[in-house]
Design a protein that fits this description.
The protein is built from twelve helices and nine strands. It is α/β, with parallel strands linked by helices and 289 residues long. It folds into two domains: 201 residues, Vaccinia Virus protein VP39 (Rossmann fold, 3-Layer(aba) Sandwich); 75 residues, rRNA adenine dimethylase, C-terminal domain (Helicase, Ruva Protein, domain 3, Orthogonal Bundle). The strands form two sheets. The protein has a seven-stranded mixed beta sheet, sandwiched between helices. Helix 9 crosses helix 10, helix 9 packs across helix 12 and helix 10 crosses helix 11. The longest helix has 13 residues.
């Protein structure tokens, strides 16, 4: 149920509530943006959708009309109560509102550990990256994710060599990432200070990491070490940041890079996703075990 600024203000005032800055609450008021999100998710009547941060239900009501089931996770207890009441008053029975912090809830808590689902969210900017990575790395990732994030973050996530960054690698190793559109601050109330973007992520089916989950720690160790100081070469970063028990010496790291067709003097942001994947796959052949 899309509301205008005055209706949102009145609703909050009636419940003796105010916008919580600590939760980065910005309510979507643009019908154009709402429709853009809906279209990007390619919804069907059989879909199950996990919505994070439904707030007063701008997206929730639209989703409920189009899919079989919606699970909305709302951290603000009062907001969750208002939405639950509004859904009941409108005889909407296919939505379950869960009051909780999405970062502290498991798929098992939400009964999604064995269910195919899509994730749609207007994510608070302060938790966007942790939420995205949590679901991309989960044992049962969503079929797709359509999320509203800060414009700058979206651009970082979809970056390509020679402008790769740690977040881009960690996201793209799991999923294809695409910016659907940019969104002006005027699409929200209250207006955020920065522009946003609708981001589409499609997790890879049968990815290497889904088949070899124990390698996730290896991936993160390599990526975090390699981007320790982006202006340094990948060799120097890895030599300085990797656990000394991992490789005997800098020369061993150099051989590992060369074997994977990577110039040791390259900077980490110039590597492609296949380079990072190759390093992970060949890691055990070089580390000191």
């Amino acid at each position: 149920m899309l509301m205008g600024p005055q209706t949102i203000k009145k609703t909050l005032q009636n419940q003796q509530m105010a916008v919580l800055k600590k939760l980065a609450q910005h309510f979507l008021i643009s019908p154009w943006v709402l429709e853009k999100i809906i279209q990007s998710a390619c919804l069907t009547p059989e879909d199950t959708v996990l919505e994070i941060g439904p707030g007063l239900g701008s997206l929730t009501f639209a989703l409920a009309q189009r899919v079989k089931r919606v699970i909305g996770v709302e951290k603000d207890k009062k907001m969750a109560t208002i939405l639950t009441k509004a859904l009941a008053e409108n005889n909407i029975a296919n939505v379950k509102v869960v009051n909780g912090d999405i970062l502290n809830l498991s798929l098992g808590n939400l009964n999604l550990h064995e269910t195919k689902y899509k994730l749609i969210a207007n994510l608070p900017y302060n938790i966007a990256a942790p939420v995205i990575l949590k679901f991309l790395k989960s044992k049962n990732p969503p079929l797709l994710m359509v999320v509203m994030v800060q414009k700058e973050m979206a651009q970082r996530i979809v970056a390509q060599a020679p402008k790769m960054n740690k977040l881009a690698v960690l996201c793209q190793i799991y999923a294809a990432a695409q910016i659907i559109d940019f969104v002006a601050p005027s699409a929200f109330w209250p207006k955020p200070k920065v522009s946003s973007a609708v981001l589409l992520l499609r997790p890879q089916k049968n990815s290497f990491f889904a088949q070899h989950p124990k390698t996730l720690n290896v991936l993160e160790k390599i990526v975090h070490s390699a981007f320790g100081q982006p202006r340094k070469t990948i060799l120097n970063n890895l030599a300085h940041n990797l656990d000394k028990n991992t490789f005997d010496n800098k020369e061993a790291i150099k051989q590992w890079l060369v074997k994977n067709h990577i110039n040791p003097n390259q900077r980490p942001q110039t590597l492609f996703i296949h380079n990072w994947l190759s390093l992970v796959k060949n890691y055990k052949n070089f580390y000191n075990n």
